[in-house]
Amino acid sequence: MGGEIEARRVQRFGRSTLMVSLPAEWVKEIGLKPGDTVTITIDEDKSLRIYPAFTKVEKERRMTLRISKYTKSSLIDKCLETAYSLGYDVIVVEVVDGYLEEEQLKTLRGFVKELIGAEIIDHAPSRVTIQIFVDPTKHSISGIISRMTNLIKYMIQYLGHLVSERKTHFVDEILELRRELIRFYMLSMRQTFLGQIDRGYARMLEVKSYMLPRYRSIARSLDLIGEAMANIAIYIKNLDPREFEEVSRKISDLKELLDLFQVSLERSIENIEKTNVIEAYNTLSLGEEFYNHVTRFIEKHLKEDSCEPYYQTIREIIEILRRSSMDLRVITSVGFDLAVERAGGIIDLSSGEAIKIV
Q1: Phi-psi category of 290—alpha, beta or left, where left has phi over 0 and alpha has psi -120 to 50?
Q2: Alpha-carbon distance 26 to 209, whole Å?
Q3: Closest C-alpha to 234, from 323, 113, 316
Q4: Domain span holding position 66
Q5: Rounded CA gap, 36 and 50, in Å?
Q6: CATH number of the domain where residue 173 is located
Q7: What tens digit of pLDDT does each residue of 231-261 get?
């Protein structure tokens, strides 16, 4: 059914109501019955999306996390994050030998604060129940990817101001955007996992279930790129005034690299929603081009300055960008896979732009 288009006549129902019938195959597949409720959302382009209101993972996923008052908070936090990404709806944390310690309570509160949809619904001295409320109709995979990309774009823009003006409060903004990026990355892990184990959930995410692992790869690459931008910001912040002044001679070149990286990233993400295989193929070269551009930058601009005191600092920053180009290549590769899948089994490379590729 995915991707099929058919025309249906709109019928008048009463004086002012218009009605259109639902496709019988879709109704049968999801088990919709007379009297059931559907959710209708209006997209920005005025198109409608219809979801069965009852669609959810077949069985509520529950986890009980038994801990000691001596259990390390870092271990608790890791278990909670993993349970979230694996799609658990209810997580019960209970202490078997006393009460929750102060650091453990801070960990639980930090968890619900940092992850989308997590709330504490029951709280006792030795037991806390966390419920995850996430509406898949409000968080499509493409929407999450778009949000993550925008966050990285803002990080790069702040980073550009930081390297040119060294206003250190920009670092705080970059790190705040990084935290927000992590929230959406964790949500992407949760959504794609649930989509793989429940076809109805995948349908609401607007992705075929067997393609979800590729979207996980994109989200992971975006998370790594965001981490790299944050690391550069921290690196620059930790320079003393003399070091920053020495580095400033190469700052304009660094700013140029950041701008190029942002443009390459935006084009790569735009491509994953398109169906043109040739355009997707052309986009494959973006990561490679950026990698080569950074490599040439190192060879041309830094080789002559290898004895200068600022050399190692600039070299480290550029190497972070070069590693990020590898993540960019993952995104463009997945974009090509998606374009081939959307082609519907027929790819014409016999004419037009295809035969112009050398």
Answers
A1: alpha
A2: 16
A3: 316
A4: 62-132
A5: 13
A6: 1.20.58.220
A7: 999 988 888 877 777 776 666 677 888 888 9
